[in-house]
Amino acid sequence: MGGLISTGIRPENRAVPLFFAHAVEKNQFLGVFMANPKKPTRLKAISGTSQPCRDKSDLVVDLPVISDVPDAPDWLPNAHAFKEWDRLSPVLVANGLLTEGGISALGVLCSLHGKIVQLFAAGEAPTGHMVAQYRNLINDFGLTPVAQGKVKPINANEKPQNKFSNNGKRAAGA
Question: How far apart are CA 134 and CA 131, in angstroms?
């Protein structure tokens, strides 16, 4: 199992480990793909995709949701980061998206925002790695237009309306 075979793919016909030989023979070797991470039960409930029959609540750790807006951490690098904390934390708390475990991730998000703003103000561009980290963090908190479509607001007091409940019924005045 420890041998190498030639893939015929340039540059210079790279050799791959023999345990990938089955994929190379079928021309399916495109890289390593990772599975999507499990979504916490609380986020499934918010986005409306929760199914109790599939819920394995004993396998997933739900961190406690923060009900009060926390103070910004002292280690944020600049005033832009503190402003971003003051802007985002009330929004995340109001929507039930900030947990005890997410405080440090929010701090990193705000820190990156502050560094990126500082770089742009100095006439420099941030590195691609910084932008990618920032983009991943804002997606994780549901702060992009695509991520907003996946997270629905919490209406605990309202019963969801069935949009098909009037099908087959005559109008009141007819």
Answer: 5
